[in-house]
Predict the structure.
Amino acid sequence: MSKRIYLITGASSETAMAYIRNLIKTSADAMVIGQYRKMNDELETLVNEAEASGFVLKLFRADLTNVEDINNLIDYVKGEVDCPTHILHCPAAKLHYRKIKGVEWKSVEDDFRIQVVSLGMLLSAFMPIMAKSSRFFTTLSRMR
């Protein structure tokens, strides 16, 4: 079993893919479960890179505006690894520049669900388990 298990949401974002690439190069003992909404060519390339190097990268498609999809993601992670040791939250809706009077409030609502509600659900599902793990406290003590 991998020592470090990462749950990375927004795995198709540039930030998340750069982080995963770094893990592939430097952390052979790590495992990543990546959530994505839409597969893109870069993410597909990353999957091939991971596979070629023997790195464990598992992807799960979920729309983080949808509570059922978030719950399915939580169930998938629990089924695969019980609990991640690290959570990296990188999702975001596509950015549209608009004047304030042209804001579509549905998109603001969706972005709130993507960035805040989904993280809250993930943390409430996994933080109690992580807190019981000595690995969690070791990580906290290193941060001081």
In short: The helical segments are 14-26, 41-53, 67-81, 105-132, 134-143. Residues 4 and 30 are 5 Å apart (CA to CA). The mean pLDDT is 88. The chain has five helices and four strands.
